[in-house]
Write a structure and sequence with these properties.
Elements lengths: L6 E6 L7 H10 L7 E7 L1 H11 L6 E3 L11 E4 L14 H19 L5 E4 L17 H8 L2 E8 L4 E4 L9 H4 L2 H17 L8 E4 L14 H15 L4 E5 L1 H4 L10 E4 L2 H12 L4 E7 L2 E5 L16 H24 L2 H10 L1
Parallel strand pairs: 1-2, 1-5, 2-4, 3-4, 5-12, 7-10, 8-9, 8-10
Antiparallel strand pairs: 6-7, 6-11, 11-12
Length: 350
Amino acid sequence: MKENQKIKLGISIGDINGIGCEVALKTFEDARMLDFCTPVIFASNKTISQQIKDLGMDLKFNGVRDAGQALEGKVNIVNVWKEVPKIEYGQSTKEGGDFAIRSLRAAVTALKEGKIDVLVTAPINKNNIQSEDFKFPGHTDFLAQELGGESLMFMVTNSLRVGLLTDHIAVKDVAKAITPKLIRDKVATMEKSLKMDFGIRRPKIALLGINPHSGDSGTIGEEDDKILKPTIAEMFNKGTLVYGPYSADSFFGSDNHKNFDAVLAAYHDQGLIPFKTLSFGKGVNYTAGLDKVRTSPDHGTAYEIAGKGKADEGSFKEAVFTAIQVFKNRIEYRELTKNPLQKQKIKRER
């Protein structure tokens, strides 16, 4: 990027029958947002025009064929398709899923080619996106395949960060999925992200137990004693500031999470229920560990209010700001770590 060039922020629109377009368009209906980035929405002029009309919005945009043609100071729409999909607000349809994936694939391609700098994804429906060409339980798994690195589902706000050891798997499969290697890999990814993406020099990480009361010394399951505790001790002895396992039922209610830079939960609901209870509407879903920056709002398609103009864009706006800040933090981190020996020499000379 050139020094004064704005970050190009790509947006996949999610399910056209949900609130994805609405929260994205509302975010940039506020012209002040164009001071922070250049938005590039992957859809079509006709689809976006229909959404604007249905929602009674006043928003002008610039249609382009390619993300590389996006103009600063404009809301840019990349024309991914020529068809006019039928919009059925509040309904889960195959067509809604198909166009959500077409938008996502186009946005990810542009991200890989460097035509956009970061990606914000609007909510998809995990059922209607399934097809012969797309068999992923969600964004995270697809992005992990398409982009380099080791992915970590990381829910973040300014004051709370919760990552997941396992994400979209059945509860009955959680315990057997958690291995020492998985724990080491996820902790390493979280630690690196906290340093590189959030500017924390010596991050402290808490791990939540797998079983109630972290197993109560084996009374309620042995996984915490046999897998979590020795792996945590091994990592701590090697210099990683990782602690636990902590009993999940009281960890957040006692404000213990405030003593750490991030929390790693054993499974999806164990981490996301407290996160969304404490931060709903302000939280951001960040895919840490990848070589590109992707965020999304902390809510779903919200079919029940789709097309009614009632959706709150707060979480989507936070996802935009988080993506921009992480991108800038990564540039700064690369500069600081590019040649540490040279920097030490300069410091001594001073």
